[in-house]
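Fig. S4 source data, part A: sequence.
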Amino acid sequence: MGNIGEIKIFSGSAHHDFAKRVCSELGMRLSASKSYRFSDGEIGLSIEESVRGYDVYVIQPTCSPANDNLMELLIMVDALKRASASRINVVLPYFGYARQDRKSKPREAITSKLVANLITESGAHRVITADLHAGQIQGFFDIPVDHLTGMQLLASYFREQLENEINEHSIVIVSPDVGGVVRARKFAVSLNAELAIVDKRRSYDVTNYSELLEIIGKVKDKTAILVDDIIDTAGTLCNAAKGLIDRGVKRVFACATHGVLSGPAIERLRNSIIEKIIITDTIPLHESKMCEKINQLSIAPLFAEAVIRVHNDRSISNLFEK
């Protein structure tokens, strides 16, 4: 991995396992910190070893409970700044609040910009993240952002598992909405597959509800892979899968970098006609969310490589597509 040098890696409480996997890839130990609660619910945190002059990396996805995990991250960055860390790098495998990136109706907040401001003002010098819901969120930060992707990891899985279908050119990559077309197109190119798009109408009167309208592209008699960045309640995904089957698709698979899997997601996926759902480990997959259809791949090696390249001031541009 190269020269580690004066580097320390800390983890918030959101995803210790992921932080340990990154450390394992780097041949390092996880540095010591302690978080606790005051009687009124306030979060307290202390850094349990010296960080003066160190290049520090804080690993903390802002997944559920998003507010607690975000606040803990801000407190840890502030503590490291006050302890004279040389450079504080925030590693956000999953960036919460990313879906609130614009005003879709009057008098709404652009919360992803607010969160970016909070992280910057807390003392962070850099952010390393993966598959932001919208690429323009990089510009919300006034500090460097290294934007990795899990798409090649997911594509590699299907390249191995569906080799025959790929060789027979019977694979179609499907974007579940128009906003994910660029992502799905890159996925399709990596598998030398055709592309289709689900045209849907979203109802903003009911949270997380969408209605399938039409499939754009040739899908009949093909194996479809639905590609998205996030699987939240899985309503869009299951709705799209049903629409694909109704239009003659033989088999349906799905993948996404971030398995949020909130609310009725597991029940919907379990009862859906989707054969397999592939996600990465940017968010912990708790026992309550285990499902025989879900397969989780580790993206920790990619983040570990990004950490060491940032630390050694080497280019990481090829990791954006690696």
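Fig. S4 source data, part B ends here. The mean pLDDT is 93.
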